[in-house]
Write a structure and sequence with these properties.
Strand content: 25-35%
Helix content: 25-40%
Number of helices: 4
CATH topology: Ribosomal Protein S5, domain 2
Largest sheet: 4 strands, mixed
Shape: globular
Order of helices and strands: EEEHEHEEEHEH
Distance between the termini: 21 Å
Length: 192
């Protein structure tokens, strides 16, 4: 089973994270921030990832440190769990409706960290969750495009993003039986 365990301890956060890529979407998540827990649960469920997260942070100061650091750990875990990238599909994408919101997500396991974040919203979206995805990209080496095509409302916007992110990552990290080598004409994808 392709899996990884990451531990991160700073003055701001303490995080233990486990990911199993070939799971069934089973989660045990407790970050101390119920909305983040909900987003990680829908991500895991729709991506078929087994995910355990135990985290705490200085949320009395701001939720940003916790949200960003969980993104760092999740990125490292994905990079570690897929190993040398042999046999993966590499690309994944989805368009997911969440009531009035329509979200598009595209992933390339390229070894070149990049986030394109075309999402409108308040500070929680612009800062905490944009930085979650930026941290994920920087520590996984993945390219990620997130586009909210239309719709309003913080909850539905973020829930649509996390569902689409899970579906797209499931595709990109899935093993392709027709390809045993690294999915690049260069024969190499940078590991972060």
């Amino acid at each position: 089973m392709r899996e990884a365990k990451i531990t991160r301890r700073t003055r701001e956060t303490q995080i233990e994270l486990y990911i199993g890529l070939d799971g069934k979407g089973k989660t045990v998540v407790d970050t101390g921030y119920p909305f983040l827990d909900h987003m990680l649960n829908v991500f895991s469920w729709h991506g078929f990832f087994d995910l355990r997260v135990k985290a705490q942070g200085d949320i009395e100061v701001d939720k940003h440190h916790l949200v960003e650091d969980v993104g760092i750990c999740l990125g490292k875990a994905f990079s570690q769990a897929i190993g040398d990238r042999s046999g993966i599909r590499r690309y994944g994408w989805s368009i997911i409706p969440m009531d009035d919101v329509l979200v598009q997500c595209s992933v390339d396991i390229s070894g070149r960290p990049m986030l394109v974040f075309n999402v409108k919203g308040g500070d929680e979206v612009k800062y905490s969750f944009r930085d979650f995805f930026r941290a994920f990209c920087n520590h996984s080496g993945f390219t990620l495009h997130l586009n909210v095509l239309y719709g309003e409302g913080l909850h539905h916007t973020l829930e649509g993003i996390f569902k689409s992110f899970g579906v797209s990552l499931d595709q990109a990290t899935s093993l392709e039986e027709r390809r045993k080598d690294i999915p690049s004409t260069k024969g190499y994808i940078e590991e972060v």
